[in-house]
Fold this protein.
Amino acid sequence: MKEIWLLTEGDSWDEVKEQVKDAIEIGFTGVVVDEAYADKARKLGRIGVVAKKGMRGKVDGKDAYFIDISSADEQLKAIELSSDATYLFLRFSDWRIIPLENLIAMKKGAKLIAEVNSIDDAKVVLTTLEKGADGIAIRGADREEMLEFHRAVAEEAGKLNLKSAVVEEIRPLGVGERVCVDTVTMMSVGEGMLVGSSAAFMFLVGSESEESEYVASRPFRVNAGCVSSYVKVGEKTKYLAELKAGDEVEIVRHDGAVRKSYVGRVKIERRPLVLIRAKAGNEEGVVILQNAETIKLVAPGGKHVSVAELKPGDEVLVWLGKKARHFGVGVDEYIVEK
């Protein structure tokens, strides 16, 4: 997920304190404060804190650097520092896209956080070379501006290209273990999580945000599938059985919009299962879900379709990703998943 940092400004701790409190309440990734204020900032709440002194800083004991990109030499310096640093906070004195493209393409391990002055600049930074910088930083903004930038980051966190797939088979499998993921976030109709038996083909499984004749809605829940299924989390996948309270998850909307949430709890229980096989173009995939009328896939347009009513020929939303995975990370190697 993209990060958003506040570069605090102020002549006293009282001024800086109010900015830090706003950043915590709005949900910023972190704040950059003068070294003298770092310990006080950490006591206000759990948020990333960079203790800055001159053009260097420390975050969790690791190095962060602040670089004005005003020449090719500064660009090369940033690339060199990216090998060891945790963060590079970049300021472009003469804003151009090309230096940022070069840094995104050539940087090593450090996260690139680009300082921006407008929402338009933020959108460019977060989408340059399709991948974008790792995040943005804004300087001394008031609460309303901070809210605007936070919304912009959430919107540009990554919009997925979902595709329509045609259901080819629905088959009961008998009893197995399935995973319910209860999040800390309320979801609406048309939202859910991407789940599948293959990292290359994942189904949008809808949240339990619709009431039924038999049960009340649980809009914080996705009854996500069998224990061995993958769930998409950012650029990685996890097995559903691995999820636990506090883990980050992705909530995906039918139009491809993605927002971040966290697991509140996970329930694994023995339930009857059903296999659903679908095809999108030449690609085919499978998802194994609980066999119950409250379990639903999401159709194009955002409508939920119960697995109890699903039939061959119906269309559902899927995401096509990278096939090969090693500990959840995409790799380039030969693999066949069936």
